Amino acid sequence: MTRRIVHVDMDAFYASIEIRDQPDLAALPVAVIATARRGAVMTANYVARRFGVRSAMPVHVALNRCPDLVLLPQRMEVYRGVSAQLQEVFTRYTDLVEPLALDEAYLDVTQQSSTLADAEQLARAIQAEILTETRLTSSAGVSVNKFLAKLASGLHKPSGLTVIAPEEVDTLLTRLLIEDFYGIGLVTAGKLQAPGIRTGAQLRSRSLAELQAVLGAGKLAPRLHGLARGVDERPVEAHREAQSIGVERTFDQNLTTREALLAELPGIAVEVAARMARRGYVGRTVVLKLRYADWRPVTRRRTWTQPLGTAEDLADAASALLTSELPVEQGVRLLGVSVVNLSRQEGS
Ligand code: TTP
Ligand code: MG
User: Fold this and answer.
1) C-alpha dihedral over 7, 10, 12, 16, to 10 degrees?
2) What CATH number belongs to 245-344?
């Protein structure tokens, strides 16, 4: 069965978040470093990369290459928050989402598309939604399996959208170096180089038995034999259970009156309930989030003994939480309702 897989990977993730939050840094070379281990660069923006600054590079080497490099300490909670926002965007498109890291995921959109061109449109919409919700850019790759989708997302970074069609696979893979095949680390690369396998073309020229002679009888030889031909049957595994399901709405103009605020809740509740139903969840804790005009966030939550799931129940719960915050002393720019303490709805 042919599949359609999208791989999304954020551009210079930690650095882009820092620059989003301190726009004056945009034109400067910026690196994020671990505060605990001051020794290494976690990531650098694309300005710094032009000087040769890379992830995992010792800070003194990075400063040597780029003396004006701006060093910023990591803010993991913020990055995790953005990661949750990404996950939320992805699940609007498909339930088959497999996160690989905070800033990347595979999405199986086979059910939601009938051609790679359809899947490309979905990927474009996902990138636009990520930009709207997080003010960050991403790169996406679209193809028929995970290996090719991930390869594609890296081809035109930043802000890239790349499709690898089956007919392009041969030309593309023969040109790759073996390190560019997913899962080939330094050790495997070393083993393959001894018998003269350095490129995709050379990898492909070897039979399975020849690769097994080099790599042993484990899974690696058949896996690389497949990858060299663009074959990768691994399914997208949405192994993680949802932690929270919710909807946020940002207003063009800040809302100030009780009526205007309360009037937003039923619509939001309908969307939350629809998402919960689609994914087969009910939940016991309703969380209301407000963001005031000055960006100050407030969350209020309440837990019920019985799980909730209908739009009416969610709207009532959210209204009660909102009412206790009224009147608001300044405008509200964002209103969100989410449900945590999720459990599987019976019968699903
Ligand atoms: P990547 O996606 O590998 O890198 P990136 O998002 O910074 O840049 P791009 O994808 O545009 O090439 O990693 C995601 C985040 O993971 C990165 O922002 C920081 C963190 N990270 C580390 O902490 N150490 C590392 O060695 C790497 C590679 C990443
Ligand atoms: Mg990235």
Assistant:
1) 170
2) 3.30.1490.100
Nearest-angstrom CA–CA distance, 193 and 37: 34
CATH 1.10.620.20 fits 14-75, yes or no: no
Every domain of the chain and the residues it spans = 5-12+77-167, 14-75, 170-227, 245-344
Centre of ligand 2 from the C-alpha of residue 12, in Å = 5
Residue to mutate (ligand 1; options 33, 42, 57; most atoms within 8 A of CB): 42
62-119: pLDDT as tens digits: 999 999 999 999 998 899 899 999 999 999 999 999 988 889 999 999 999 999 999 9
Q: What is the pLDDT of residues 298-330, one digit of tens each?
A: 999 999 999 999 999 999 999 999 999 888 888
Q: Which CATH architecture has domain 170-227?
A: Orthogonal Bundle (1.10)
Residue 55 CA: which ligand 1 atom is closest? Answer: 26
Are the C-beta atoms of 139 and 9 separated by less than 8 Å?
Answer: yes
Q: Which CATH architecture has domain 5-12+77-167?
A: 2-Layer Sandwich (3.30)
Give the span between the Cα atoms of 142 and 247, in whole angstroms: 27
157 C-alpha to ligand 1 centroid (Å)? 13
